[in-house]
Design a protein that fits this description.
With 302 residues, the protein is α/β, with parallel strands linked by helices. The protein is built from 15 helices and five strands.
């Protein structure tokens, strides 16, 4: 039996491997595919275990070992019936003869990396993970956690482990115990400007300038402005999320501001950021000052 685990979601691949190990009555053999030699192949495919009738052999990354990967098909028919071979290949070359041969004889599991479009899936997942730890986590708190941490399952798991000392993980606990990722910080900054809170904009700029890259932050601000523009310009019946590949939850947070400002008001937002972009690229104006001026201009709706 051959199981092929592909994809770049290392968390879910690791979870699958742990599951296979737990279900196996014995000790799994772990092999680094990059170090594998031709001399080891007979023992892997045809060898017997002295301690159990069955064998579980897990090989990671043999695809990078071209001399071994190319001869794999020749060994598939020689496999011992008592062998469960697990191959872990995050980015296999699907054009190769070996991959095509494995397709015909393997159980293939594809674990793709989560992106921002998986936020809703991540919300439900962290609630389930908290429940497994015996910790309460409301839907709103789960959403805040994902907004601040992102959809990386390793980071979410580590955060949940740290916060599992509480019986209930509240929004206040999340804010006090985690740092907002740059994307979330930028949205909060942009939203503050759209609300017209000039004092808070200046305070946030002062804090963010201590740790964030101004050019990256300005790029994220520009992305937020694009999404706001798409909403403001949309006609009835337009599917903005689908047409522009924007997560519906992100749009739901921006929609009230697009409706309030309208096309005319949103155009002022774009003009303010365009002026900042021009100033950053062509003048000696300090980037943070250009960003602050643009956001204050947005806050006053001028």
């Amino acid at each position: 039996m051959i199981t092929l685990l592909i994809g770049e979601n290392s968390f879910e691949i690791d979870q699958k491997i742990q599951q296979l190990k737990a279900e196996f009555d014995g000790t799994a053999e772990m092999i680094d595919g990059a170090e594998l030699t031709v001399e080891q192949l007979p023992d892997i495919f045809m060898g017997m275990s002295l301690f159990s009738e069955k064998r579980l052999v897990i090989i990671r990354g043999v695809g990078v070992n071209k001399s071994i990967w190319d001869v794999f098909p020749a060994w598939l028919d020689r496999m011992n019936d008592d062998l469960h071979l697990v191959l872990v290949e995050p980015k296999p070359d699907k054009r190769t003869r070996t991959y095509k041969a494995l397709q015909g004889v393997s159980s293939i599991h594809d674990y793709t990396l989560w992106t921002d479009r998986d936020e809703r899936r991540a919300h439900q997942w962290v609630i389930e993970q908290a429940s497994e730890r015996g910790v309460g986590l409301s839907s709103s708190a789960a959403r805040l956690l994902v907004e601040r941490i992102g959809v990386d399952q390793w980071q979410l798991t580590n955060t949940l482990d740290k916060l599992s000392v509480y019986d209930e993980i509240t929004e206040d606990i999340i804010r006090d115990s985690t740092e907002a990722r740059p994307h979330e910080s930028v949205f909060m900054l942009f939203e503050t400007a759209l609300r017209g809170d000039q004092v808070r904009v200046q305070e946030m700029i002062q804090v963010l300038s201590l740790s964030e890259d101004p050019y990256q932050l300005f790029g994220l601000l520009s992305g937020q402005a694009f999404q706001l523009t798409a909403l403001a310009a949309a006609r009835e019946g337009d599917d903005v999320a689908k047409d522009f590949g924007i997560h519906p939850f992100v749009l739901s947070k921006l929609r009230p501001y697009a409706a309030k400002r309208g096309v005319r008001g949103v155009s002022k937002v774009v003009i303010a950021l365009a002026a900042a972009d021009q100033a950053i690229k062509t003048s000696s104006l300090e980037p943070w000052l250009a960003i602050e001026q643009a956001l204050l201009r947005i806050a006053t709706n001028k």
